[in-house]
Amino acid sequence: MVIIHQVAPNPTQIDNLAKDIWKYYGYSGTANNDFFFNGVESINNTLKGEVDGNRPGAISFTSGSYGNHTVTYYGYNIYKKSGSSDKLYLRVNDNWGTSARYVDTTYIGSLGHTLFEICRVIP
After folding, report:
1. Could you count the other beta carbons within 10 Å of the beta carbon of residue 49?
2. Model-level pTM?
3. Which of 9-18, 38-47, 87-96, 113-122 shows the lowest per-residue confidence on average (mean pLDDT)?
4. Which of 8, 23, 62, 107 falls 20 to 30 Å from 79 in CA-CA distance?
5. What average pLDDT does this structure show over 81-109?
6. Strand order in the sheet with 57-61
7. How far apart are CA 78 and CA 9, in angstroms?
């Protein structure tokens, strides 16, 4: 028996939701969660590596503009300004509109702002 979640799961359970859906539709695969409290550079490197490797995923936020919400990430833009650090904006589908949205990764993983968790789904 496969249980399909009727309400939003706890962010720490997103991998279970992904596995249940894959199983329900007859796909094999796995999923795992990774939690980050690291600095912005480490988080950006992780996200860029996933997107560049054609591995979109889910990201859960516990506070901020996307508090208590999980979105799908699938791209990014890097903005460069002379004399400043590069800024990475994560491209997400938040299901609140039909166009792409961008999340400033400067605030992802900052203690006091949000717990950052990504779910990798691996076919």
Report:
1. 10
2. 0.72
3. 113-122
4. 62
5. 84
6. 30-36, 116-122, 57-61, 69-79, 87-93, 101-104
7. 31
* Helices then strands, each counted (H, E), the chain: 2, 6
Q: How far apart are CA 9 and CA 28, in angstroms?
A: 21
Higher pLDDT, 20 or 36: 20
Q: Which residue has the tokens 């299901």?
A: 95
The pair phi, psi for residue 76, each rounded to 5°, is -160, 160
CA distance linking residue 60 with residue 72, whole number of Å: 9
For residue 4, the one-letter residue type is I
DSSP line for 91-104: EEE-SSSSS-EEEE
Q: Which tokens is 99 given?
A: 């166009």
